[in-house]
Design goal:
Helix content: over 70%
CATH class of the largest domain: Mainly Alpha
Number of strands: 0
Largest sheet: none
Oligomer: single chain
Number of helices: 7
Shape: globular
Structural class: mainly alpha
CATH topology of the largest domain: AhpD-like
Length: 132
């Protein structure tokens, strides 16, 4: 008998799917091992259930902030992931341009410069129908 997951975890799964898409979440679940299962549960409940599921900001706003933070810290693979998610969150290329300007001023030009390359490449892939 499997135990019932906490409400925040269930909310997190729904939010994660609405932002990243079913295909991405299904792949992550299929690739989950005993080693990283606790980490996957943590991010699903904490990031997606406790933070992304809050009503105070829209998914668009959270998307913009998330991309800016990831760019500022140089997490470019995650930048690309979250740029692809803008198809579901409503954040636009104009939103991302403004976020990258903020990254340049508050986190440094090198971080923004590389992130801009990632954003441009990912948006081009999205327009051409390419996937990760």
């Amino acid at each position: 008998m499997s135990e019932e997951k906490p409400k925040r975890f269930r909310e997190g799964v729904a939010t994660r799917r609405s932002v990243l898409g079913d295909a991405w979440v299904d792949r992550a679940e299929a690739n989950k091992t005993e080693f990283d299962a606790p980490f996957q549960e943590l991010i699903t409940e904490a990031a997606w259930g406790h933070v992304w599921s809050r009503p105070n900001w829209t998914k668009r706003e959270r998307s913009i902030v998330t991309i800016a933070l990831l760019a500022a810290f140089g997490h470019y693979e995650e930048v690309a992931l979250h740029v692809r998610a803008t198809a579901n969150t409503g954040a636009t290329a104009d939103d991302l341009r403004e976020a990258m300007l903020h990254v340049a001023i508050y986190a440094g030009v090198p971080a923004a410069n590389h992130a801009i390359k990632v954003v441009k490449q990912t948006l081009a892939e999205m327009q051409s129908g390419e996937t990760e």
